[in-house]
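pipeline stage [seq->struct] | target=Kynureninase | organism=Panthera pardus | residues=497
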Amino acid sequence: MEASPLELPADTLQRIASELRCHLTDERVALHLDKEDKLRHFRENFHIPKMQDLPAVDLSLVNKDENAIYFLGNSLGLQPKMVKAYLEEELDKWAKMGAYGHEIGKRPWITGDETILGLMNDIVGANEKEIALMNGLTVNLHLLLLSFFKPTPKRYKILLEAKAFPSDHYAVESQLQLHGLNIEKSMRIIKPREGEETLRTEDILEVIEKEGDSIAVILFSGVHFYTGQLFNIPAITKAGQAKGCFVGFDLAHAVGNVELRLHDWGVDFACWCSYKYLNSGAGGLAGAFVHEKHAHTIKPAFQQSVSLTTSEELKNKIWKKSDKSQKERLVGWFGHELSTRFKMDNKLQLIPGVSGFRISNPPILLVCSLHASLEIFKQATMKALRRKSVLLTGYLEYMIKHYCNKDKADTKRPFVNIITPSCIEDRGCQLTLTFSIPIKYVFQELEKRGVVCDKRDPDGIRVAPVPLYNSFHDVYKFINLLASALDSAETKNTSVL
């Protein structure tokens, strides 16, 4: 199954089809790819929903006992089978020994988050002391921005991509408001070129070069939630830091999806959730990263107002007047060094780096579900998963283009566009599809046929074959169901018209 490092997915697929003496679209290609897949056994570690259990499925169209086509790991990953056992371990410990559970067992409650930190290293490409598992994603983003966003009269902007995930957009807005800044002048949003869906790296770098002296923080997604575009994290980081900016990333759609090297790339800070590709369950324990170079210089939520020396005009346009000089530090007990934490003398010994950002004790039940998933990642490795993902998504892309492209000979036939970049270096496993007919009909028909994906305004349906538990045969079946859904959707659309 494996392609050589220089072989594109389409070339690999064509080579295999030639070996099998069949067309690339033949079912035998998918079955062969699954047979040769060295990661296929990891699928057995997850609960895969059955057709009969899905609320929108039409049982007259499917075999109720078959597995659903679950292509929504980009929104909520499937449940690892070991989650229940790990939860029961902690519930049993609580029932039998009560407070002794704080210090006993493979996940002592006091250090439960720390016991699984080592499993995150390779996933984000960082040292253990650069990672903390805590809170939810947006809470972590706020904590990090409070520390890294230090506006001055000359450097007061936050740069982010257009149509960033709403929680990121809201977080940036509220941080600007917290500092008394004018949102329109301080929130610098980069939009794609006219007629394009995704951002060009050269356009991002050009804005950084031209406006970098006024930018305090660059905050981008690792992978854009809607388009599925993988941004060039090292290039953006290097360009931003060269202009004196702090550079951070929301990795919600990148972590567990693509290979990351946060330490080597020199990223200043990052945060992520764990319920998508990391399969920790809805509202699972999130993560944060602060590069070790900031361990002794960036403190949790340290903010000091600046003395403005700009003209009255600039003050009125950008800054709200304030004559208060304030210093704020938001810390909690679990940011205190463990060795002296229980002396209870209220003399803070802050842990250097990101661990000092922790405020509360870890929620052990959330640690359990994340632990179950991270153990699977440790066995599979991100390198191998990414290699399979490139081929798996490449196979999906080829099949969609083969069967669902615009037909010049039949202009009335519904067709599909893929707005996610075609270059494998510029995407993860997700493809975002748009359609020549209303997506509400297409989505309804897919749901009826047991395809679990999602629609996102304005007109996209996101599908994400996840290499940990999706198969090549899943892709093959999806294409057949998509074709059937398009036919039914077109009939419904025509009847409405």
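stage status: PASS
auto-comment: Residues 239 and 460 are 31 Å apart (CA to CA). Residues 472-496 form the longest helix (25 residues).
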